Model the fold of this input.
Amino acid sequence: MSLRFCAIQSKLGNLFLLLTQVSFFCLFAYSCQQLATWLHSPLPGSVIGLAILLLLLCGKVIPEKAVNNGAAWLIGDLLLFFIPPVVAVLKYEDILEQYGITLLSSMLAASCLVLLGTAFTVDRLFNFERKLKLQKQRKLQQALRAPILVSKTLSGSAL
Done:
């Protein structure tokens, strides 16, 4: 009975922590949007918020575990956040009619360049890692092949 109660209590604690962190993100996003509006910033509040959150995390003002569960949940349900862009497409249909091909081709080219750059970087890192591993293996093999010199005093021939 006690074990079951502890499990339920743990689940409720995790749920409360998750709700607290997600609420923090929502409040933080709203605050940053209001800040961007108040400053008449060309940057959207979400970008300002990401920059502030990055600085707070890098400066260890906010520990990573304080936002980890909420961020993981939000990323897991990220598909829900693509609904506003669909609404924006419907709202700005005339702009897409005029610049749609240019926008799509530039996004496609940018995505391809990012994929190629990532593939090139990963390939270089794997080759570098493989070379380091081969060097370690060669050194180990050379160390095992090296003749073991025994001192004449230890072998008994110096007596």
Observations:
- The chain has six helices and no strands.
- Helices lie at 2-39, 45-58, 68-76, 83-91, 93-145, 152-155.
- The two ends are 79 Å apart (CA to CA).
